[in-house]
Amino acid sequence: MKRTPLYEKHLQLGAKMALFAGYEMPIEYSGINSEHLAVRNKAGLFDVSHMGEFLVKGTNAAKFLQSITSNDIYKLEVGKIQYTLLPNGEGGIVDDLLIYQINNNEYLLVVNAFNREKDWEWINIFIIEDVEIIDESDNISLLAIQGPQAEAILSLLTTVELSKMPYYSFQNGKVGDFEDVLISKTGYTGAGGFELYLKNNQVEKLWDLILEKGESKGILPAGLGARDTLRLEMGYCLYGNDIDETTSPFEAGLGWITKLTDDKKFNDLEILREQKKSGVDRVLKGFVMQQLAIPRQGYLILNEEGEEIGVVTSGTMSPVLGKGIGLGYIKSDFVNSSENIYIKIRNRNIPAIITKTPFV
Predict the structure, then answer these.
(1) Contacting residues for 315 by C-beta, under 8 A, at least 6 apart
(2) Cβ(135)–Cβ(120) under 8 Å?
(3) What is the pLDDT of residues 27-60, one digit of tens each?
(4) CB-CB contact of 61 with 45 (8 Å)
(5) Residue 96: half-sphere exposure toward Cβ, Cα within 13 Å
(6) pLDDT tens, position by position, 285-331
(7) Could you please report the per-residue DSSP string of 235-280?
């Protein structure tokens, strides 16, 4: 079992630790609900150093990435970030990831921790001349400071003009005592905020400094439990739950990052073109429970006649709404109807309503 450089800090803070993607990670400190609400209303600090980071370098780096990802890498600019997918050659998804354009010949790929080894093996299958791929995952630590007070707190530690940073952009700058920290503005919580990529030997001091500077603004250390409930309130997909090797981008509502133009050549192009033309049999939708109940992954979704029409992929009790919310794949022909749906929880069929995301 691996540990991030902040493992001892988590223990000192009384974190509940659990195995996640091969790492012993903090699930919660003061409680998932309190951490969740701190991020929504003030700020939270996450250790996400378990994520994978690959550098792709060389004169053919852009050409290479264009051939293995679903989005259009040529739309990316230096200092900007792109959300994209690795299609698996059969209409499914190897992983979803972020690509940072460092310069014209260098890109940083940030991949899901669970998929680090799989992604590494997959992208190396397609490597071309004048491209070098370096796995920097074990050398980089990653902090995420999220919430409406994140900018005010981080501004106390850097001269980078955070307020002028566009969404999905990044800059390198000094944070605290450390030069050349990569500061990005993406976020997985919907509450706004920043990510800090830095060296392993810098992260403990910066973790302490952020918590110290943010104390008066209500910052809390936050674990992966709150990270999951926060992303679910926004309706964001989680790999392994809502998307995987068997789901297509069009089923998952990710057609907007799937470019099918004539000048975009990648391994799933024809399969996905056909899906877009013919439509898909199921789609990922959000729903809200109408009684006090929590939907869980794998629960069946039924129609009024009790017939199975789908399955829950993610679910939780929303700390903001005080209601059960979830995502699930539902038959396409049913989604267009006005009938109610039901979630089968044990031996009861609990009513729910399909709704647009984000939930909050």
Answers:
(1) 232, 294, 295, 296, 297, 299, 324, 325, 326, 327, 328
(2) yes
(3) 999 999 999 999 999 999 999 999 999 999 999 9
(4) no
(5) 21
(6) 999 999 999 999 999 999 999 999 999 999 999 999 999 999 999 99
(7) T---BTTTB-TT--TTTTT-GGG----TT---TTHHHHHHHHHH--
What is d(CA 15, CA 26) in angstroms, rounded to the nearest whole number?
6
- Quick check: 120 and 113 in contact, CB under 8 A? no
All residues at 6 or more sequence positions from 41 whose CB lies less than 8 Å from its CB, including other chains? 147, 148, 218
Instruction: Please tell me the distance from the alpha carbon of residue 12 to that of residue 31, in angstroms, as a whole number.
Output: 15
- Residue 37, classed as helix, strand or coil, is helix
Amino acid at 211: L
Domain spans, the chain: 281-355
Q: With contact defined as beta carbons under 8 Å apart, do 170 and 183 qualify?
A: yes
* Mode of pairing for the β-strands spanning 219-222 and 193-199: unpaired
- Count of beta carbons in the 10 Å neighbourhood of residue 299: 21
In angstroms, rounded to a whole number, what is the distance separating the alpha carbons of residues 326 and 285? 8
Assess if CATH 3.40.50.300 describes domain 281-355.
Answer: no
CB count, 10 Å around CB of 277? 8
Question: In the sheet where 52-57 sits, what is the strand order?
Answer: 81-87, 93-103, 106-111, 52-57, 132-135
CB proximity list for 36: less than 8 A, separation 6 or greater: 222, 226, 229, 230, 319, 320
